[in-house]
Amino acid sequence: MTATLIDGKAIAARMRGETLLEAQALTDAGWTPKLVSISVGDVAAAELYVRNQKRQAQDAGVGFEARNYPESISLEQLTGVLAGLNADPRVNGIIIQRPLPAHIPVKALQKAVHPLKDVEGMHPASIGNIVYNDLALGPCTAVAAVEILKTLPLTLEGLDVCVIGHSEIVGKPIAFLMMGLGATVTVCHHMTRQVAVHSRAADAVFVAVGKPGLVTGAMLKPGSALIDIGINRVDGKTVGDADFESCSKVAGWITPVPGGVGPVTVATLMKNAVLATRMQMDHYRSAFAAAS
Asked: Which of 14, 104, 144, 236 matches a 20 to 30 Å C-alpha distance to 275?
């Protein structure tokens, strides 16, 4: 292995420390950050994520409340629940856990969360802000992946970047975030004819497709950075979208799976929770300030 292993856990720990200081300052001002997690039906699939979020919230000085609703709840009822949380000044962020029952489309719930409480960065307004290079509460995984790249000794202005995968919440936001930082970005997807031609020309490659072993060492420029966002289960093990063994022999830096983007994503969620709290505090102070 020649690549330097990027320690996502260390990056996340640094971020949590910074978030904790900000959360303590907000608490001193009477605004203790609080997240509410919403899950529906059998929570077994999301239980691990909820436990991890709760633990990380405690470490970051953020309150955390997990709510589970029966699978029989209607979209209208759940939208009403979100409206109540939107109006509650004691709640600063809302997390929609997946999976959801078939009769509840996740996009409808994401749109129902107020943009100021959209700590997951999934609301259309949050995505749209990135297009205008006005990042506030961005999609956590995309923001985390870019934050990891920013820790490396690379000049982002003019950097040739290849993004493999063009989902609305990961691939596309990464492309816009990197363009906002001055990079030259190529986005590859399932209709791209020769992905390897693009990835081999890139100084940094992001991959988020959900196909284990999709990226191999032969597809990378020697010394490039590889940010693997994929999470797949293969023979009882968690692996990314890159063939780690071959890629680590070519890349200059590489994220492991697990232990790479994942921890930074959760740390970004907590950072968003604290940022959302400050935004709401400023909003309330401005809206209800006494006339001079």
From this structure: 104
